Amino acid sequence: MLSPFSTSAGHPFDPTFYLSHAVSNVICFVVFGQRFEYEDKQFVFLLDVINKSFRLVTSAPSQMKNFFPGLMRILPGPHQEGPKYMKELINFISQRVQIHRESFDPNCPRDFIDCFLAKMEQEKENPTSEFHNENLAVTVLNLFFAGTETVSTTLRYGLLILLRYPEIEAKVQEEIDRVIGRNRSPSLEDRSQMPFTDAVIHEIQRFVDVSPLAPPHLVTCDTHFRGFSIPKGTTVVPFLSSCLHDPQHFQTPRKFNPQHFLDERGSFRKNEASLPFSTGKRVCLGEGLARMELFLFLTTVLQNFHLKSLQEREEIDISADVRGSSKLPRPYNLCVVPR
């Protein structure tokens, strides 16, 4: 990841491309057991289809399809492209699975696909097993959706926020220098000793609120909740923004304020209303991986570079560009200067 930033040092650039490719390569290594060069044609194709799919899934027409499936099925519009994108992604994944099968060794799994194939082999006599080809493809698809677009968008938004608040950037860098230094790369074990950095990352997620609507859930039995009767089979869509911007839990909900996650002594403090990954049994599958990526990517960039804006800080707009059910940072360029 540092190489593209170093190449661009001193020159304005849009970080979208680099962040998206760096984050996606982490998922590729976990799932496929390999990383791709940024210009690899297969990799570029995969990211292009994922990007289009994410934009489509979070668009207003697609959200309408969740509420009025029968009507939206017959109406023309961009939401009709969804099946085509899904087919392209499933075909790509199926090709990678076939390559794995040809060199598969159940005693030496190399990645997620190998582990899933090993479990399929163990349960091949079980007719009700959840480990089959269709679930393998869908699970890999979910990992990519959970761990690519949302994470890269959060990082991109986070860098914009730090451009707006250079004093926060400086304080994170001071903590990096004190805990990690300059002679080794950050590791996940460092996070417990870096309360301010941890608070900044949590506040970025809270403030950014990339996906205000969690995936739809289906009520499994007749339920009574706070005076409401919710019949079995009802579709419920959690509105995460109602928690992330609740003034009862966050003193300044509309402002970026890392103190929301710090106590009086400067120690990290959890907040029960911080639910960017939703909650319960259907919490985001990629939560652990996403938190790891956010910490390691952000600390690695700030360990090695100062961020410089092309605008006066007061002119930097950190309000969201709302598109359908997703929130994106407004387009921007930045400069990085080696520390």
TrEMBL record:
It is found in: Endoplasmic reticulum membrane; Microsome membrane. InterPro entries: Cyt_P450, Cyt_P450_CS, Cyt_P450_E_grp-I, Cyt_P450_E_grp-I_CYP2A-like, Cyt_P450_sf, Cytochrome_P450_fam2. Pfam families: p450. It is a peripheral membrane protein. The keyword Ion transport does not apply. It comes from the Eukaryota. GO terms for cellular component: endoplasmic reticulum membrane. GO terms for biological process: epoxygenase P450 pathway; xenobiotic metabolic process. SUPFAM superfamilies: Cytochrome P450. It comes from Podarcis muralis. Keywords: Endoplasmic reticulum, Heme, Iron, Membrane, Metal-binding, Microsome, Monooxygenase, Oxidoreductase. Belongs to the cytochrome P450 family. GO terms for molecular function: arachidonate epoxygenase activity; heme binding; iron ion binding; oxidoreductase activity, acting on paired donors, with incorporation or reduction of molecular oxygen, reduced flavin or flavoprotein as one donor, and incorporation of one atom of oxygen. Its cofactor is heme. This is Cytochrome P450 2A10-like. The keyword Transferase does not apply. Heme binds at residue 284. The gene is LOC114603166.
